[in-house]
Automatic annotation (TrEMBL):
Keywords linked to the UniProt accession: Membrane, Transmembrane, Transmembrane helix
Domain EamA residues, every copy: 1-113, 129-263
GO annotation, cellular component aspect: membrane
Subcellular location(s) of the protein: Membrane
Protein family according to the UniProt entry: Belongs to the EamA transporter family.
Protein's organism: Pontibacter ummariensis
Residues spanning the membrane: 6-29, 41-62, 68-90, 97-115, 127-145, 157-175, 191-210, 217-238, 244-262
Protein name: Permease of the drug/metabolite transporter (DMT) superfamily
Keyword Cytoplasm in annotation: no
């Protein structure tokens, strides 16, 4: 995302990501068009919008002002919102220990967003709220897939969900300056290449694997993959020249502690 934002706007990055991911999964979508019952299409649309389309734009917009490492840590709130939405909308049991994990996670989020100085000034910190909103969408999508699309093959969920949101992204791209930038802006094709890698590897392939994990496990276990995202995001952030401050580490630890409590609680 950071490399793509060097040339393209956040909206263009989000739309390109969705369009390319849709095209990469298109052969599978065409193959399985008749494999889903009519009443399941609304859930596929919900999974596509909440699990992919909306977060793609929210993350890209947040990354214009927020360090990648911090964005990755905030993404670990997905497990907390998966539990909370599952309890509120899908009658999943929630214990006091799990509620404690949610509270701890929120405290860590507040510390992370409103700590530090320098490049992460007050205006920048509020951009973390866009990541939080994206994790709410992720939590809803995970529950929809688990409780409304259970039994549907992961490749079918992934490809058809992207098929439903891909045209929206393509339509949006026609209103942007993507074509002009590719033709006239130096470095545009390199930035496009990074977005393509993000779309194929970080969206299309990752989506199939993640939906497979939801299929064979619980929603909380699947969403606990967010443990690894902060580590990877921080590594890339440091390599990209970003700085992480002491209070950021405190917030990260508290968030991960909250996620850990949620996933360990009975």
């Amino acid at each position: 995302m950071k490399k793509g934002l060097v040339v393209f706007s956040s909206g263009e990055v989000g739309a390109l990501r969705m369009a390319i991911a849709c095209l990469s999964l298109l052969p599978f979508a065409i193959q399985h068009l008749r494999a889903v019952a009519p009443d399941k299409w609304k859930y596929l649309a919900g999974a596509g919008m909440l699990g992919n389309f909306i977060p793609a734009f929210l993350f890209a917009y947040a990354e214009t002002r927020l360090a990648s490492g911090l964005a990755g840590v905030l993404n670990s709130l997905t497990a907390l919102f998966t539990l909370l939405i599952g309890a509120m909308l899908f009658r999943q049991p929630i214990t006091w220990m799990r509620m404690l994990g949610i509270v701890v996670g929120f405290i860590g989020t507040v510390v992370l967003i409103f700590s530090g100085n320098g490049s992460t000034d007050l205006d920048n910190k509020y951009f973390g709220l866009y990541i939080v909103l994206a994790t709410v969408c992720y939590g809803a999508s995970v529950n929809i897939i688990k409780h409304r699309l259970q039994g549907t093959k992961p490749i079918i969920i992934s490809s058809l969900a992207m098929l439903l949101v891909g045209p929206l992204a393509l339509g949006y791209l026609f209103t942007t300056e993507v074509t002009y930038k590719l033709q006239h802006i130096p470095g545009a094709w390199e930035a496009f290449m990074y977005i393509a890698i993000l779309a194929v590897v970080g969206t299309a392939m990752a989506l199939v694997l993640f939906n497979k994990l939801i299929h064979i496990s619980t929603t909380l276990f699947a969403s606990s993959t967010t443990y690894l995202i902060p580590i990877v995001a921080l590594m890339w952030g440091v390599l990209d020249g970003e700085t992480i401050q002491l209070w950021h580490y405190v917030g990260m630890v508290v968030i991960l502690a909250g996620v850990y409590i949620v996933n360990r609680a009975k």
